[in-house]
């Protein structure tokens, strides 16, 4: 089995959803630059993402929607009918220069990842993880649903079971829609309670295909460790997957503006290490993440974890320069911890009864 591979693209560099949009920040380019500055990304492990063709996108999305998305990019405008029908040209999913090419490249990265792990292996595709996209409309900053397209490609290659683990702060409603009632896909989502898209309640099992754990505000590392050990890992092991897809959204950490969870990036890296041992194939995507420094640090640490690189206590100067050059002009500059280190300090706390009860409820429901 080949060593871990990293999928990236130049399309993300300088691409912006709009000046005031939460995705008006550099994410994937910052990860690429940071990993290269650390010496972690030699040419032999880097793969350039292809752009998925329209025909490949119709494995989940409708032909009309894909055509509308391409037309909106070409015209840089949408009609009121297209906006209402397909969710394009809204505040969340605006018209911007690469609105088809960028998500199609993320989807192409996922499809390439599936091919790369066909005989076993590990791939990091930080541009992926767009888990809100619906068959006929954009939703939640997601124009195309890369996880669904990637998982469907894995299944079409002859795999019997894929475990989908999602630790983004927001519930994976598009993935749940795609695989509702599936016996081939087991979905496990840990997300903030009461946060958009307001789906994924504890009693929602997606027709028997999902375990949903809504986490309370302030959800911290010790509570996450309980969920990982008592719920996520047993559920994945019991499913005996041929492949695991980890959606590793970076918006569940303390500093992210679009959640009120309180994890350190160590919780994400611990999940990566634990899941890698449970299947011969592992794909790790990005997802949410709206603070440029925490997102770049977290996904760079994901790659270091997958590729076996030691994360230093203090970054060398070239890596610090990458973080120092990031801009989040509406929010100001961070403190030294986000500019000089990769690993967050642990964020422990008392484990609340509501978290324990939710875990045990799901364990009992699924006989774990």
Tally of helical segments: 13
Shape: globular
β-strand number: 8
Low-pLDDT residue intervals, each spanning 5 or more residues? none
SSE topology string: EHEHHHHEHEHEEHEHEHHHH
Strand order of the largest sheet: 2-1-3-8-7-4-5-6
Mean pLDDT: 97
- Rg, nearest Å: 19 Å
SSE class: alpha/beta
Share of helix among residues?
25-40%
Instruction: For the record, give the distance between the C-alpha atoms at the N and C termini, rounded to a whole number.
Output: 31 Å
Q: Strand content of the residues, in percent?
A: 5-15%
Largest sheet: 8 strands, parallel
Please describe the structure with a list of short key phrases separated by commas or semicolons.
8-stranded parallel sheet, alpha/beta, 13 helices, 368 residues, 8 strands
Task: Characterise this structure.
It is a single chain. This protein has helices spanning 28-37, 54-57, 63-75, 80-86, 101-116, 146-156, 173-178, 221-239, 265-276, 292-307, 317-325, 336-340, 353-365, and strands spanning 5-8, 46-48, 121-125, 162-166, 185-192, 210-215, 243-247, 281-285. The protein is globular. The relative contact order is 0.14. The mean pLDDT is 97. Helix 9 (265-276) runs parallel beside helix 10 (292-307). The protein is an alpha/beta fold and 368 residues long.
How would you summarize what this structure contains?
This protein is 38% helix and 11% strand. The chain has helices at residues 28-37, 54-57, 63-75, 80-86, 101-116, 146-156, 173-178, 221-239, 265-276, 292-307, 317-325, 336-340, 353-365, and strands at residues 5-8, 46-48, 121-125, 162-166, 185-192, 210-215, 243-247, 281-285.
